Amino acid sequence: xxxxxxxxxxxxxxxxxxxxxxxxxxxxxxxxxxxxxxxxxxxxxxxxxxxxxxxxxxxxxxxxxxxxxxxxxxxxxxxxxxxxxxxxxxxxxxxxxxxxxxxxxxxxxxxxxxxxxxxxxxxxxxxxxxxxxxxxxxxxxxxxxxxxxxxxxxxxxxxxxxxxxxxxxxxxxxxxxxxxxxxxxxxxxxxxxxxxxxxxxxxxxxxxxxxxxxxxxxxxxxx
Length: 223
What we know:
By secondary structure, the protein is an alpha/beta fold. The protein is built from 9 helices and 8 strands. It has one domain (12-221): TIM Barrel, CATH 3.20.20. It has an 8-stranded parallel beta sheet. Helix 7 (188-194) links the parallel strand 7 (176-180) and strand 8. It is globular. The chain starts with 11 loop residues before the first strand and ends with a helix.
């Protein structure tokens, strides 16, 4: 049984393991989940669509064994149609693909749903919001990249984040809007104001010794 994303409208922090200590990944995940985290963000990169290579289905399989959190899998890859099912079989609960990589996104969303997962679409900072307008209502989540995908620790791009304002109008209250890139205690309130409710944070959490304190700092900034 696949886990489901929390209901839209509740602000969720989704720690990205891209910045975690992979030698102690189970412990890293346990630390953030013990702070009430419900979503773990998995950055999948192929060295082609983005200039970096990260993890594949075998890693997702082992992550699945050590947590009951929702595995939010972001496919930053050229050919998500070929590989999405492998990640689903490995234990991913949610699949997000890039609008820049799929020619028939509505059909692809329907296919992914038939495999039992929730589905999201994402767009790079330079891609206009209009590119996803027609399929926003078909998605469970829309991911707005607020850095150029490929590496953690980049600076937040406010102009890209502002796309959330328009996407929220199209999405209504029932579709999650996720932001990824440069999210910390300073930028989190900004993107929530723009309409986001799912905050991917990597370096801001795993770059600090006390992961629980880092999560609390982001939550406190939103109150």
